[in-house]
Amino acid sequence: MKVALYLAILLLSAMGISAEKPNIIVIYTDDHGWPDIGAAGVYDDLKTPHIDALAASGARATNGYSTAPQCVPSRAGLLSGRAQSRFGVEANGGSMEGFNAQTTIAERLKKAGYATGQIGKWHLGPNPQIIDHGFDDVYSKNANRPCHANFTLEGKTTPMQLDKDKNYHLDACSKAALAFIKRHADEPFFLYLAYRAPHVPLDAPKEYLDRFPGKMPERRRQALAMISAMDDGVGEIVADLKKRGLSENTLIFYIGDNGAPLKIHKHDAPGGGPGWDGSLNEPMNGEKGMLSEGGIRVPYLISWPGTIPPDQVFNHPVTTLDVAATAVEIAGEKTDEKLDGVNLIPFLIGKKSGPPHEFLTWRWIAQAAIREGNWKLLVGGDRVYLYDLASDPGEKINVIAENPSVTKRLRGLLGEWAEELVPPGLVTGKMSVIWEKYFDFYLDGKAAEPLNTKPEKDIQSWKARNADIKIHEGNLRVVPSPAAKAAAPFLVQGGITLDGNFTVTIQLRTGIDGSVGVAWRTSDEKDFHPKHKVSAAITKSPEFQEIEIQAPAKGKTIHLRILLSNGVVDVKKITFEDKSGPQNWNFKN
Description:
Layout: H1 2-14, E1 23-30, H2 49-56, E2 59-61, E3 64-65, H3 71-80, H4 97-100, H5 105-111, E4 115-120, E5 137-139, E6 147-151, E7 157-163, H6 169-183, E8 189-198, H7 206-209, H8 218-243, E9 250-256, H9 293-296, E10 300-303, E11 312-314, E12 318-319, H10 321-330, H11 345-348, E13 360-364, E14 367-372, E15 375-380, E16 383-388, H12 404-418, H13 433-443, E17 462-465, E18 467-472, E19 475-480, E20 490-493, E21 498-499, E22 502-510, E23 514-522, E24 533-538, E25 545-551, E26 556-563, E27 569-578, E28 581-586
Helix pairs in contact: 2-8, 3-10, 6-8
């Protein structure tokens, strides 16, 4: 052990780094487009002075990549330091067994004597189990509702419980980060701060929205406001580190988890719920859900004042897998398990030159990709594309026909790597309808189908009252009608008969807190009786919730209403079940 520590000290000294264990902070944003920080120099409607200052204090990686175009796999890769497809976490909605078997950055750094903390969005299993992955302090706030936490915003230790702070969720995460730093300022610490922004539901309060007056899409205003709220948090954290004399002993990463969802049309839908999140990817092509640049190239900043020279623009490709490799090595922790990333510090301080990686690889369900230098090969189902990113960073020109030898070599490298994955192979599923449309539009230059915003009156025998309904991305979208004013929307179903007590199960997601309920009318009633109604509370969330309601009906029910709160709701599935069995409605394109 003493020999290992001595060798670690020699390594750090050779790199020009203090032997004192540095603090490490990873700030992870959500559905945040690559150009959506001021330092990128693309859009002038942003207000990110503190994020820009963070970039100026160190390096901005212009070719920084996530490992997937989706939340769960990208987070599993970041925290494990291994390509998530090696352990079967390919996409959202799958088993977490593979991730649960991994050793996280937090677990590795705990062995090196670090205090560890997780704040914000987790999305890798039940929040109370975050502590099982090496995190001592937890404040898993990702919405304006109670969150699982074992310390308070005042820094007090508590049992793991639901903390009911009243702060806007992004502000609460920033406050929790400051509380964590205060709690552990006298020892080395690792903080994983995962803001849920600008991911939907778009929920910025007025104080942030007011920073962006003038004419613009309301969803863009919301995204700018949420990014601005994160920027405030970055400024507070950096200022606190300076006040405590910790700046030069703290390495900070600021990275996005994947590109922004645009839904092709960037429709400025009201309500702030599912759809375009207001962030932008252009000039990168594509969006969340694609292995094109717009889906996986993300904001990527590295700051370590006094170690990493300031004002760097680092153009070689890097990946979120490099975070774990960097953290473990600078902490002096030895690992026998191979990590897939590279310690970036020697490249950023001039001890090493050239690209950190020979090539980067991706696999995500029906898509796979490899980048070697400026060449990028992209596979989507049966489609194959080759791009020269030096001359075509926006992936507009497929040069596969002119470069057969490059295509063959890259396809071979990608295939060899894919055989190491679980399960092995270049793809693990078929291209969905929406991905086919994305590839048609972004990569093949086909015109997009016209956006259908006209309300539909009757869908699978369901009708809406005080609202408009349509099928949107495989769900029944319910949008309150402005003409109804304060009247709450509800769905009507007259094509069903239920005998006696029944259960209704609804899978839905909503952008507001409220309730969902069921009302019924029996065959011997002329109208709905006020007592024939049962409701359950729901909380706003970007994820689908499953609500089960028991209805103590008597006789034969012939008319039903699903009662909703006055906000945009997406319904995936409705099931009614009486003693004769279930009756299901799945809403699909």
